[in-house]
Amino acid sequence: MDEKNQELQWMEEARWLQMEENRGKDGTWGHPHVSYLTFWSLFELQKAFAKGTVLLDLPEKSLAGVVNQLLDRFIIDGQIRRQDREKLLRTLLLKHSHARDIEALGGVKPAILTSSGDPSQPLLPQRPSLEAQLFCEQGEGITEGYPPPGILEKILQNSETTLVLVGRVDFLERPVLGFVRLKDPMQLEPKQEKLGQPAVPVRFLFVLLGPEAPNMDYTQLGRAAATLMSERVFRTEAYLAQSKKKLVHSLESFLNCSLVLPPSEASL
């Protein structure tokens, strides 16, 4: 929710281009870094994916068309109640804002969507993420008003991207996950090029929504999903898979190749 107009919207939190970059409070981008994930986020993502909804080679050309198809399948799969469809439709079609918009919005703050459609403040304390503390608050960030040096050269011709939408809604009984692979990539925001930003078409969509809970950090789940899609082997499988079972197997292979660093008091 923005501070100026108190309106709900999707706010860009991080981006992946070879490496991860996180948005600071002032709208600057932190230093690029190798993604590191919590064991909990990977474990919860695996559980949500196994129970989630997967649509492959969807022939839609707009975000509204994709969302309508996904919500219909959510109902068929028993992920959501029919009466929640319209509220989720409005939620998923909220305006998308970016790091460059922070100043005009007067800043942003976390919010939870209620059954009435109005936002509420999270009941649990909100602390800065570890990645924001390490990479956004130390040193100078990268201003979003122009493309960072060399970023356009890193984007290969015919590149495609994944849009990850995560958030908290209090009228859902449990977290719901949807994964969509489009038959053809769609241009979500063609105006990006006019603003000096690369307009990369979207091929995949991750949606993860659920109620607030002490053990659920949806931002970390979103980071896990985005990191998964930035990994070459899983991304290749995502393009080729013909079933949800194959995608779940690929996710399990990703987990098997991941290393966990236990807590330690030793210093280097």
From TrEMBL:
GO terms for cellular component: basolateral plasma membrane. It holds the Pfam family Band_3_cyto. Keywords: Anion exchange, Glycoprotein, Ion transport, Lipoprotein, Palmitate, Transport. It is a multi-pass membrane protein. The keyword Transferase does not apply. GO terms for molecular function: bicarbonate transmembrane transporter activity; monoatomic anion transmembrane transporter activity; solute:inorganic anion antiporter activity. Gene3D superfamilies: Mannitol-specific EII, Chain A. Residues 3-266 form the Band 3 cytoplasmic domain. It catalyses: hydrogencarbonate(in) + chloride(out) = hydrogencarbonate(out) + chloride(in). It is found in: Basolateral cell membrane. The keyword Phosphoprotein does not apply. GO terms for biological process: regulation of intracellular pH. Its main location: membrane. This is Band 3 anion transport protein-like isoform X2.
